[in-house]
Amino acid sequence: MIDIQNQRDHRNIPIDKVGIKNLRYPIIVLDRRNKVQHTVASINMYVDLPEKYKGTHMSRFVEMLHLFHPEVSLKNISELLAHMKEYLNAASAHIEIAFPYFIEKLAPVSKSPGLMDYTCRFIGSINPQNKTDLVCEVMVPVSSVCPCSKEISEYGAHNQRGEVRLSTRFKKFIWIEDMIELVESAASCEVYSILKRVDEKCVTERGYRNPRFVEDIVRDIAFKLKRDDNITWFSVSAENFESIHNHSAYASITCGQKP
Questions:
Q1: Is residue 242's pLDDT more than 70?
Q2: For residue 27, which of 7, 152, 175, 258 sits 20 to 30 Å off, Cα-Cα?
């Protein structure tokens, strides 16, 4: 049959990225406590396309995933990228894997178990020199109490839920759980899926004793990451969905050299 994609394109314009987006696919990721975790990812896969070719072979992206099914993790993304590049005859390849990751958390006092879900992403690319770049990203819900509100009020302080996004590049493997725990330790208080009354009392008082601006959150995280020899680059941002304003509070820090 005629291979339309490999036919000559006369516009002489290369394409930086071409491929598939939002492919839902079952994967297995590494779990620090349970060894592995089954989840469903939304996957984007791209390669570059030289100016001489009319198109890429879209079906081959899914074929590549099937070769690595069911485990798609930080450990084998480099191998997957190399296969994409070779199979699609490309100079560079890119992949973005977004998925929900679940961790069982016990309520602080009652110890009632509940599952917390965190949105995570693996982002990988390989360049024409076969150098691979990997980024691990987590999005963590947190609770924060405003230090200013606490200081100026006769009683109480406004508090809100926020979201912290942390992305890292690293020398060796890094656990998703370690990144999440680092973020939660910088907040006024963690967020839980199940809280009894004794737990609500605990987290309310814990947050009040530990007020944090968004500036405090990103600085605390950055302070620890700068002292971690395994981390070569990071980007951290915090957004508070304010309870007394019709806008969010936001802060971000990026540190390190991109490869």
A1: yes
A2: 258
